[in-house]
Amino acid sequence: MTGAPHGLSRRRFALTATLLAAGCAAPHQGTGRPGDPIVLTLLSHYASGELKAALQGPVDEWNATHDRVKVRTKAVEFNDLLTTFMVRQAAGQGADILQPYCLWNGQLVRAGVLRPAPPEDAAEITRGYGAAAVGSASVGGKVYGYPTEAQTYALYYNKRLLQESGITRPPRTWRELEDTAYRTTRRDRYGNTLVQGFGLSTYDDSTTVGQTLALLNAAGGSFVSGDGRRTAIDSPAGRAVLDLEHRLVNRGASEPGVNVYKAFQSGQVAMVISAGWWTGSLKSQMGAAYRDVAVAPVPVPELGDKPATLATGFMLGVNASSQHPREAWEFLRWLNTERVGVGKGATVTRMSALQVSVGSLTGRADDMRTLLGKGGDPNLLPFLDALGYAVPEPNVPGAQQAKSLLRKNVEALWTGQQSVDESLRTIRRQVDQEVSRSW
């Protein structure tokens, strides 16, 4: 297709044309007078299944109890969410309330899409959520929304596979991680891998970049410098992470071409680092075999090192071009701060109840302990503990492209196309160019 805007794939350009031509009509927004309520639109990626139903529940509750302001939900698949935000904004048809992946916040703020939270909301968010969640929802020191999903990374492992290899506890250090990975790796007599000791996988961002950044943070390193203008992965910590991953692949403990999500569920992977959202999927899809799954903190290089991991997430914020920002923040305050009973005198916010109902967490640790202490899955507790020490994903304006570049180069390392030195040099050159241009 000719004439596609720079940076948009053919698929996304087609989506852009469709939205502008027909599917992006501005919703009716009333005046607020009796009989003509204000209608706010909320655009998210909760497009189907239990996520859609979970969000619709409190929205229906709001609409049933508020006459002056109504909320209408709209959703697109996650892969189309950022493009939809940008296209609708350019067409003057943006939704009032947005639920972006926090990685995009710098880009959305720079493009004039997000409105800073009012002082009272910013104070409530800073006070009520963990530091990682607040950091994810902030850009340049300003808070832009209420954190919703809060995802931290930890080590999933198969207890049965470890026990069959004579290992009685999950690894705590990188040396133990390697030893466990090699001992649990199994092959048939023809050399075909039956069990991977550690699941490095090129399947998606979470299994490539997420694992790498969780290990990088555990080593005391960082992907982007504090001022957001350059990459910081070309460091002793970054080299140590890539060396570790390179050894695991070269020694046959990891096979990057395998879809780790399917392989772990079928007992073909002993360990993998992933985010807490996966817990709910494993529980529902593995059936009785889920009893073999356990979770531990991400191993650190040496015993006594300070724990750290990666935190990612989403938030709900208000469009800078919304005609009804006061009403939008009113709804978000109701959804994210008002408390509802969950039995025996305990209360939590509606958003916390929503997230736990779909196997996720919010950054409100007090809510999470209340909910998980009432018969919740114990495998979520390490992710909850990690809220206290996780490092938020960098969300500078060029963050999405920087993440894509990191993934490309890490996968080139895993598949033998680049050495560790080549990967570090290429990441530094490409990411530095991207984040410096974005500012």
Q: Give Rg in angstroms.
A: 22 Å
Strand portion, in percent?
15-25%
Tell me the total number of β-strands.
15
Number of helices: 18
Q: Can you give the mean pLDDT? A: 90
Structural class: alpha+beta
**Termini gap:** 30 Å
Summarize the structure.
The chain is an alpha+beta fold.
Describe the SSE topology.
Elements lengths: L9 H14 L14 E7 L4 H17 L3 E7 L5 H10 L6 E2 L6 H6 L3 E2 L3 H10 L2 H6 L1 E2 L2 E2 L2 E13 H6 L9 H11 L1 E2 L5 E3 L9 H14 L17 H15 L9 H6 L5 E5 L2 H9 L6 E4 L12 E11 L5 H12 L2 E3 L5 E3 H8 L7 H8 L8 H6 L3 E3 L6 H16 L5 H19 L1
Parallel strand pairs: 1-2, 1-3, 12-15
Antiparallel strand pairs: 3-12, 4-12, 5-6, 7-10, 7-11, 7-12, 8-9, 13-14
Helix pairs in contact: 1-3, 9-17, 17-18
Description:
There is one protein chain. With 439 residues, the protein is α+β, with helices and mostly antiparallel strands. The chain is 44% helix and 16% strand. It is built from 18 helices and 15 strands. Strands 1, 2, 3, 4, 7, 10, 11, 12 and 15 form a nine-stranded mixed beta sheet that branches. It has a two-stranded antiparallel ribbon with strand order 5-6. Helix 1 packs across helix 3 (81-90). The longest helix is centred in the last third of the chain and has 19 residues, at 420-438. The protein is globular, with a radius of gyration of 22 Å. 47% of the residues are buried. Residues 1-32 have low confidence and may be disordered.
